[in-house]
């Protein structure tokens, strides 16, 4: 006969009229009879469920193994782990402590990301990063970087700013328009939630926000700000800012360089970012080269051999500065 109760060698306790677990440890010195012969309980009985609930609350909702070990010192529940797991599944406190974060469903892409029939930089995202220290003669000055990100082709354009005011930004925008064309719309953070930016960067951009909106209207460019305290709205260019900072840390480090070297390094970083594949690069030899932003901008890919000469140009002055 296959029975879980028969395998426990049960014994009848005449004092309490309960069934206990048998065994061969009766002659163990200084032992507790309650632990050697625990009470056998039915897992489906209401009393068993109440005991499991009491132990679970007393032990502050531990795991299944801990609760099973504590209860086995007094009670032997048939199929005890299954009964304890069933209680923990229905226990609100256990569910609250063991709840896993649910990944929210991604929203639809904004219209700026879907300008498929428009030229590059038709919809552009703008962000600032820095400051960086440059050497001019015997003095050190601060410079900031300006990233302009195409929201459709993922192309990147980087400019160097001498100051954080509206005039410096408009001059950089004029250079950008002369080289890439006039964008139809520009999106940016509202200036108070720049990730990793300095306080003066946030304050300067916040102060020039009304003036920018007025003066950009002359260019017939729609300047849109993301909602406050929502940096994820600009995640497409915030991630590129991180890549630029990592590249500058590797190429320049913390040393103060000349403005020409910093500008050259930023342009090379721009070429590296624009050479990243837009899709997954397979290992099949029959597949064509992946599409990159440089391929959409220049009609050809920029290979690493094309940048060897420019890398050697700025490495020599950089070493001399150190």
TrEMBL record:
Domain (Integrase catalytic) ranges: 115-301
InterPro entries per the UniProt record, alphabetical: Integrase_cat-core, Integrase_H2C2, RNaseH-like_sf, RNaseH_sf
A Pfam family the protein falls into: Integrase_H2C2
PROSITE patterns (alphabetical): INTEGRASE (PS50994)
PANTHER family: PHD-TYPE DOMAIN-CONTAINING PROTEIN
Protein name as it appears in the record: Integrase catalytic domain-containing protein
